[in-house]
Amino acid sequence: MTTPGNAGSAHHATATGDHLPYRYGSALAQTIESRWQDIWESRRVFEAPNPGQPGFDAAKAKKYILDMFPYPSGVGLHVGHPLGYIATDIFARFLRMTGHNVLHTMGFDSFGLPAEQYAVQTGQHPRITTENNIRTMKAQLRRLGLGHDPRRSVSTTDTAFYKWTQWIFLQIYNAWYDAPLDPASRDKGRARPIRELVERFERGDMLTACGKAWAAMTDAERRAEIDARRLAFRAEVPVNWCPMLGTVLANEEVTSDGRSERGNFPVYKRPLKQWMMRITCYADRLSEDLEHLDWPEAIKILQRNWIGRSSGAYVHFRVEGRDPITVFTTRPDTLFGATYIVLSPDHPLVNVISTADRPKTSFRRAVFPGADDRMTCREAVAAYRLYAGGKSEADRASGKDKTGVFTGAYAINPVNDEHVPIFIADYVLGGYGTGAIMAVPAHDDRDFEFAQAMKLPIRDVVYPRPIETMLYFAKAAYGEDGEPGPNWRDELADLLGLATNASNSHQSFDAMLDIVRTRRFTVVPETPGMVAGATPEGPACDVPGSLGQRRGTMRAVWLETIDNLGFMNFNDMRRHLLVEHNYQLLRGQAFTEPGVAVHSASAHLDVNHLPSDKAADRITKWLEHSGHGAHATTYKLRDWLFSRQRYWGEPFPIVYDKDGVAHDLPEAMLPVLLPELKDFQPESSTDPDAPVRTPLNRAAEWVECELDLGNGRRRYTRETNTMPNWAGSCWYYLRYLDPVNAASFCDSAVEHYWMAGTQHAAQTPLTRPGGVDLYVGGVEHAVLHLLYARFWHKVLFDLGHVSTPEPFQKLFNQGYIQAYAYKDARGIYVDADKVTLADGSLAMDNQDKPGPFFFDGQEVTREYGKMGKSLRNAVGPDDICTQYGCDTLRLYEMSMGPLEASKPWNTRDIAGPFRFLQRLWRNLIDEQTGASHVVDGVADRDTLRALHKTIIVVRRDMQAMSFNTVVSKLIELNNRLSPGKVTMDVARAMILMLAPLAPHMADELWYRVVCKGMGEPLSIAHEAFPVADPELAKDDEIEVPISVMGRPRHRIRVVPGLAAAELEAAAMADPKVQELIAGKVVKKIVVVPGKMVNLVLE
RNA sequence: GCCGGAGUGGCGAAAUGGCAGACGCGUCGGAUUCAAAAUCCGAUACCCCUUAAAGGUGUGAGGGUUCAAGUCCCUCCUCCGGCACCA
User: Which of residues 286-325 of A touch strand B (CB under 7 A)?
Assistant: First the structure.
């Protein structure tokens, strides 16, 4: 007999039979959940007061728990989205119950493309779409029972919010980076207000870039000087222009095959005047400050790689009659091996230096499709540029064949005054370093390939120690051109044995060769057993036997090595190493590791025999002294492109006067509101060269404005670009702290309180970066949001607006929820929830069945991937909440596995957590009457022990956010209990431990069981979490396994806490143990008190 | 190619160097029921065996360290993620 409304299919939540009106089923879960969600809201259970506000308790420690800012999508959430939200909610509830002031809320990153796209299609204003979406999402989130402070919720599209986004932009605009003069200094510099820059110029403390005295400069010159230093500035730069999206994109938003991350449209490089953020000033700090953050190591590595710090030197190569070419290298120690120079095809000097002749050269002048030796150098350069420009990013990445052309010009290597040819080639990138390199083919893979393609010389300047030894031997053993002795291979092998031994690094080659030669005539006493000790070759290798035998073995190894090097004979070796310096060419591969400098001496300096790092130091110092270069650190990170040609974003608080000069608006004029528009269409185009016009250009009466900026009312035009999506998410976590403050983006005292670092005894102020205590989100934001937000935060820190140098102290990346997806014959994804098996049953309900699968009568193929819209395999949380209740959904999502792991969704598995809740309910509640049938009194010893053991591990695992094991421990405890027999002490503790995980049921049980259904129903969100009594958790007796030879054979029962000797005695006294070792000799007994005994037999 | 992460029953997964597979799903058996669903109880890594006992094997592969390895070290394979001519 079933209740009509619940007569679902077999896997649906249990029906509430008429005879059991209070069985925990889908309907009861719904009732309980909405009832408590209402109570929480009306009683304002989760409001977290700020210091000074009513209800604030200064005695408690604070915790700021944060979820990554979601975009309110129109299609609603799927069960993958709330995974992190549920986890943070559980953790926040746990913290609340363990005596913390917890700030946890949720807002919306609501500017962005989908709402605008929808507006373009339907004409509905994006604000309306956005507000609808936010409403839907809030309702969905509410149904999950998340304990957020609703007063703190903000949306980036709120004018009261974006007023402050604009204000922060102005802080950045009105700041410059005061970098220390010495780049190696520990002081990394900081942002300062522009005002201080002007003061320094006025005082003459700082020299202007143009070289003129400040007082002698015109207004326009002064403005140019300042504008060139602002942290937010406009520049004509080659940008990623995506004509289909009608906007430019940041580097981070372009995929490696040159398409837009959003929409997968082609992206073109095109010079445009754009707003930029000088994030590169912070590259060093952004990289270094990662060290003290409690973030997953993988994310730190991702960010470090993205910032791409590399340290080396700039080297100036003179060019006769022209400006010198500056290259950047990370290997200044290889400067003597630079045999040519390569410029990127778009390097500004290319046109200047390429010559109009057709020189005869020992190398090939041009290698690329269409190369023609009848061309002059200049013609070849032009042809090559055309060819390289036509290559897409994808072509460049895939095609590893090196191409390039000779410019006809030569540069002078400062270290040896050698003339080296200058090439252009597209393997050198314009945007990195100086857009020019010195090529050291012997020690760089790419240069090696290019040199081979162009038949350029390859000269070794770094050898590993053995090759350096051979070089010495080739030179000194028989004179520079003497005949080798008959035993040269044996001598060399012995010398290599000595020279490669670390303890001989201080010995000169001469001395070692001497040892080799005298030893050959020394009779070695054949004394077996003489193993270690001081021998001429230092500590011997591990080969057993006599010294003579060991020498023989070492020599044999080195003889084989010599044979494998590919030298035909001694003279061949001498030719490659000593005369031609082209061993790497012979080997067919560049040697890119550090080693020892060779062939690196000139009239200016000599670094031979120095290890690579020392040689690099020496050469860099020489470059600096002689004015030919300087130490340098460069970064892959580019300045952040901050303009978008879209409607639905924050307007810039910037206007231009009739001369096109930018003026920032005063704070009193904020916010600059978005104008109303009818047509939101960006001017998308398939033509990469189409003119760029933004939607805001169409709001003529908004663009043209008359303002008084301090010098009377004048006409201005407004900036018509908008800010990128990332702007709001760079600082939203600060607005949560003080969401309605009209006077400031965030009150300073409030900011100090919530953003202060979590105190650890071992941490000094330097290693305590402070910030949000826990930030949970997906790994996809590793380099975009997390880098931009850190950058803004550091600027705000430098300018004194926030108190910590870092925004997010601890970061946690939750894994994805994955699911099966299905493709039809055309390769198009179909709705996964409609795919059936051959017998007509839904594939979703039988995930272990291998198929075949059908959709709409057609066979489809199965794949597996991240749940989402694109794979059409999303499962909605609302459906699950309706069938089982959100408490079950919460438990299921937590019990799937570790939070950080990606794991497959399997609807069928939800029954497990659901049954757990049902059993727990039944254990405490009479399903007939709905009243508590918990008995008064205290549980028996065994149950009490189980309870306290559970409390111990639940607390530990909650702390570690290991919620999957928390769930299983509670299930285990519950499985010991029976309906109507649970005592109040156990029931109480059980309910409290359940409260963070399944808060609705916990509150309901508390009311029915503990309050006995009397009085106002009140939430237990602020009750104290159970504390274990270690005495009660103690065992009377424990079982200790006895292993023989590492294999468990038997177990004995003993009282806990036995010392090793006692445990051993107990084990040996056991008759079964005696039987196991009967007739055998016990060699050793390993005893781990409380754990195990292992008997080692002969 | 480089940098990360991961490989444990039919499935999701547990396991401070100390009894591998907790807990859940599924499956099988039983109880309850006129019957079914739901619920409850029991079994469930594999091999040998009628069964049980006893034994053996087993954490991607191969080596090593250790009294003892899923866990530590080395080599390799597979999958997932990121970067990719960054000088």
Answer: 297-298, 301-302, 305-306, 308, 310, 312
